[in-house]
Amino acid sequence: MEPHEYLLKHSQELSEKYPGRYIAIVGDKLVAIGHTELEVFKKAKEKYPDKEVSIAYLPTDEEMVTLL
Q1: pTM of the predicted protein model
Q2: What is the pLDDT of residues 24-45, one digit of tens each?
Q3: Nearest 5 degrees, angle CA 35-CA 29-CA 24?
């Protein structure tokens, strides 16, 4: 499973658990959660130095309303 597929499949659950946070995905695994892109990238690279890391931001409910 590709990172974008993982994100689509689990978007509702992730948005409820981690609003306002950045997440890092490697393959089909959530590998890091944090407040900044750099923080989650570093955590993910420590665990998986040779893998490609995908980072996504999970907006809060307030941010979602603003986007609409």
Answers
A1: 0.88
A2: 999 999 999 999 999 999 999 9
A3: 25
